[in-house]
Amino acid sequence: MTAPIALIDCNNYYVSCERAFDSSLVGVPVIVLSNNDGCAIARSAEAKALGIKMGDPVHLLRDKIRAHGIRVLSSNYALYGDMQRRVIAACDAFARDFEIYSIDETFLDLSGFEGQDLVAHANAMRARVRKWTTIPTCVGIGTSKTLAKLGNAAAKKNPMFDGVADLRDDGVRTWVMDRFPVGDVWGVGRATARKLEALGIEHAGALRDMPMKQARAVGTVVLERLVAELRGVPSDVVETIEPRRKGMAVTRSFGTPVTDFPTLFGALSQYAMRAGEKLRSHGLVAGRLTAFFHTNQHKPDRPQYAGSRTVSLHPMTSDSLELIAAAKRGAERAWRDGYAYTKAGVMLDDLVAADLRPRTLFEAGTEKRDRLMNAIDEINGRFGKFAAVTASQGFKREWKMRSEMRSPSWTTDLNEVPTVRAR
After folding, report:
1. How many domains in the chain?
2. In the chain, how long is the greatest CA-to-CA distance?
3. What is the pLDDT of residues 303-353, one digit of tens each?
4. pLDDT tens digit string along 150-181?
5. What number of H helices and E strands is found in the chain?
6. Which of 55, 106, 200, 359 measures 20 to 30 Å from 353, CA to CA?
7. 212-230 and 190-198 helices, crossing angle to 10°
8. Residue 117, CB half-sphere, CA atoms under 13 Å: how many?
């Protein structure tokens, strides 16, 4: 018998995190903006009801914001990441293992709980999450990840499920799948959806009944596996070990355009410093670094330029100082005067585990630098991410992103922890 899988999804996650610490946001329309306060990336139910769509530029919403008193917040990723940790802690006793799919979605392996009423089990888990974090959730249950994802969507959209949809029940599964648009099925892209609809396959139920050979012909082995998952045959299990990364990037848009190299290099230094920290946290080293920057591509009436250069790292490293030096070499070769740059970043690839990296013939010992990097990580982890910086990063950081409406770091900064007074 196939073990059940659940997907727990936090509703309107970024908004719910903000409401956990600011009760004045409850019951009113709220939107959270992307990096640099550009566009809406999270909306409360009230904001959605006003017609605000994901990705709407905030400058086009000014009239609606004023007319309806919409609360607008800058994104606060430190808060959202910490709240995710708390949500997972609340779920821990309700599953054998879990796999974090995204910041607001987690797959749960319910092996060993099959003998219980899993709807009641899921509701108890939702109640625990709500009690510990105030964040509302929905849960989908199935015998594959695709069915769990489908059940979660049904639980979120249809009040009849009251927050939990168990698709192990044949009748419930058929009812949901016969009404679920094929283009909304997890893993079906727009091009594949058009092909399926041209064949008369418009709902998840019809996709489930599609012959496997035909599915492979239409959408390769990916669609074939999806059809199998809709039939309850899991193509994989909950991954409790994070798959090895092939690459990573640290990129940001600037709050104000950058026109001189020292300022640009200050930003790249910070991104390279952060990239090294991420490598070390995953026990990896990189073999190549790419530094890039470009002008505002959404203003074609202004001079445009995009520069990037890739630098090989010999030996492979996670040392932030080595990454900063490599970023400088790449940026110097790509730099052009006379442009206003609005975004930059560093990308790392050719990643391998640090203990498996190839050694060079004349490689010097790295013990002292390793201790230095660990000390910097510990200082920034304890006292804030900019407590220890390199000279090239600077302290003013005029280029930093706009986040003029960011809420406090309620749970990650001692200076911003809420104060409670008894009267």
Report:
1. 2
2. 71
3. 999 999 999 998 899 999 999 999 999 999 999 999 999 889 999 998 998
4. 999 999 999 999 999 999 999 999 999 999 99
5. 13, 13
6. 106
7. 120
8. 5
List of E strands, 279-407: 284-295, 306-317, 341-349, 352-353
Question: Is 214 within 8 Å of 202 (Cβ atoms)?
Answer: no
| Rounded (10°) angle between helices 212-230 and 145-157 | 60
Q: How far is CA 161 from the centre of its chain?
A: 27
**How confident is residue 392, by pLDDT bands cut at 50, 70 and 90?**
confident
Measured from the Cβ of residue 241, the count of other Cβ atoms closer than 10 Å reads: 7
Average of per-residue pLDDT values in the chain? 88
pTM: 0.70
Supply 183's token pair. 């283009």
Tell me which residue of 208, 84, 90, 94 sits closest to 144, measured CA to CA: 208
CATH number of the domain to which 282 belongs: 3.30.1490.100
Separation of alpha carbons 199 and 335, rounded Å = 51
Domain enclosing residue 340, as ranges: 247-360+384-393
The answer to whether residue 378 is domain-embedded is no
- Is-contact 155 140, C-beta < 8 A? yes
The partner residues of 258 in beta bridges, in order of sequence, read 341
Non-local (6+) Cβ contacts of 303 within 8 A are 295, 338, 339, 340
Nearest residue to 247 (alpha-carbon basis) of 293, 287, 294: 287
Contacts of 356 (CB under 8 A, 6+ apart): none
Angstrom distances, CA of residue 63 to CA of 68, 155, 372, 406: 9, 34, 52, 21
Instruction: Indicate whether 132 and 252 sit together in one domain.
Output: no
Using 50, 70 and 90 to split pLDDT, how confident is the model at 243?
Answer: low
Write out the two tokens for 133: 């974090």
In a domain, 257, yes or no: yes
Contact 5, 145 (CB under 8 A): yes
The DSSP bridge partners found for residue 99 are 107
Q: What are the backbone angles phi and psi of residue 39, rounded to the nearest 5°? A: -145, 165
Residue 323: inside a domain: yes
